[in-house]
Every structure is written in C-alpha cells, then in structure tokens.
C-alpha cells in the first residue's frame, strides 16, 4: 500500500501546532511582549492588537531562540515529553533540531511537497508543507526554519520570500570568511531580521541581511 504523504503532512502539521502551542504557553507574557517589541511591533501587555501573522513571527522567536545560557521553550517541552512515542515524537524531535536558513525552491517532489536547496549550508531537503507547495514556484528564495522528521522535513509554520540580491549578499559575507554560515544562522538576530522583512519593515543599519 502506497504511503499517504498528504495525510502524513497534515498529521505532522497538527502535531507541530500542538507542541508549539505548548511552548508558547510556557513563555511568560512579559517575555512574549519583549520578543514582539524586538520585531518592531507596538504592543500592549497582552499582545491584543496583533494579527495572527504578526503573532506567528513573535511566537517563533519566543519558541526557538533564547539568550545565552537559557533554554529554549521548545527544548523545555521536549524534556517534559521525554517518554513520548510514535509519530508525535518524530515531529517533536524535528522541531528541537530544526535549523533556520535560506532556501531555493528546486521544484515539486514526485510524491508530494517540494524539494529545496539549502543555499547557505548546502544540500537538498524534501519538505512536506501544503502552504509552501501551493504558493512557491521553482526558483523562489525563502527564509524558513525546517526540521527533519523521517525522510522529509516540515517547516515551523512561518517563512519569508527573499530576493537574489539578499542571497548574494549573505553568500558573499560567508565566502569572504567574515563569519561562518552556521554562526550567522544560529544568531537570534538573524531570525529577528528575517521576520521583520516578512512583516514589511524597512531594515536599517545593523541588519544581518
């Protein structure tokens, strides 16, 4: 019997949402407000005026980044569910080991989803994500956070379209040896800058892009 990749992708997306919701609830509201402000958003103490898209970017920072010496929210959730088994644990492991990078869409995968090239770290990755599969044409460049499940990868739910000039600038910085690609991508400021771009902010001096 053929594997139903679309159904598997939907189950993985649902599990991802559950774990990320848990992670968000584990973050104190003042910390969440702080992340929103880092994105340049004007917020009150309850984040009430933000739309779902803006919240998603603030949540990503709160879940997947942390100050030096502090644990990330997603890692705390993983420790709390250390005895988890089955498909769900594969998704949770994918989220804890996810990486942020800039990718180029190579085209559709024969089974489902897309094949992406990691334009900064190298290699190709098969991604099952219904939203990306519907909207991203071959050649599209995007910043996204991916995690490998079992043969394929999932996104963290947010992404941003980039252009060739931005990608060339990043590659140039890395090629000249000014900084290692892994160091750039692991810096929380990189995610912050990506999501600011996604929300249409004009990026001033100090931007990592």
Walk me through what this model shows.
The chain has 209 residues and is of the alpha+beta class. It has 2 domains: 5-94, no CATH class; 99-198, Nucleic acid-binding proteins (OB fold (Dihydrolipoamide Acetyltransferase, E2P), Beta Barrel), CATH 2.40.50. It is 46% helix and 18% strand. It has 9 helices and 5 strands, in the order αααααβββαββααα. The protein has a 5-stranded antiparallel sheet. A hairpin with a 4-residue loop joins strand 4 (141-148) and strand 5 (153-162). Helix 1 crosses helix 4 (73-80) and helix 1 crosses helix 5 (87-96). The longest helix is centred in the N-terminal third of the chain and has 21 residues, at 5-25. It is globular, with a radius of gyration of 17 Å. The model is unreliable at 202-206 (pLDDT under 50). InterPro entries: DUF7986.
CATH H-level superfamily of the largest domain:
Nucleic acid-binding proteins
**Envelope shape:** globular
Mean pLDDT: 87
- What CATH first level of the largest domain would be assigned? Mainly Beta
If helices are DSSP runs of H or I spanning 4 or more residues, what is the number of helices?
A: 9
CATH topology of the largest domain: OB fold (Dihydrolipoamide Acetyltransferase, E2P)
Helix and strand content put the structural class at alpha+beta
User: Could you give the order of the helices and strands?
Assistant: HHHHHEEEHEEHHH
The strand line-up of the biggest sheet is 3-2-1-4-5
Question: How many separate domains?
Answer: 2
As a percent range, the share of strand residues is 15-25%
As residue ranges, the low-confidence spans are: 202-206
Proportion of residues in helical segments: 40-55%
Radius of gyration: 17 Å
Q: Tell me the total number of β-strands.
A: 5
Distance between the termini: 46 Å
CATH architecture designation of the largest domain: Beta Barrel
Q: Looking at the chains present, what oligomeric state does this protein adopt?
A: single chain
Largest β sheet strand count, sense and barrel closure: 5 strands, antiparallel
């Amino acid at each position: 019997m053929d594997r139903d990749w679309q159904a598997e992708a939907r189950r993985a997306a649902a599990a991802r949402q559950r774990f990320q919701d848990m992670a968000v609830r584990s973050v104190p509201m003042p910390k969440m407000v702080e992340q929103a402000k880092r994105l340049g958003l004007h917020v009150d103490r309850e984040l009430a005026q933000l739309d779902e898209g803006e919240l998603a970017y603030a949540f990503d920072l709160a879940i997947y980044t942390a100050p030096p010496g502090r644990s990330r929210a997603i890692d705390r959730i993983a420790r709390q569910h250390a005895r988890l088994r089955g498909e769900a644990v594969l998704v949770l492991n994918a989220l804890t080991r996810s990486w942020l990078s800039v990718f180029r869409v190579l085209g559709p995968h024969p089974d489902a989803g897309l094949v992406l090239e990691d334009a900064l770290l190298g290699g190709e990755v098969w991604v099952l994500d219904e939203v990306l599969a519907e909207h991203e044409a071959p050649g599209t460049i995007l910043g996204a956070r991916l995690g490998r499940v079992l043969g394929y990868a999932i996104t963290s739910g947010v992404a941003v379209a980039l252009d060739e000039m931005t990608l060339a600038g990043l590659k140039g910085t890395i090629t000249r040896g000014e900084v290692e690609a892994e160091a750039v991508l692991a810096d929380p400021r990189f995610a912050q800058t990506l999501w600011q771009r996604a929300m249409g902010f004009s990026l001033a001096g100090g931007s990592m892009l």
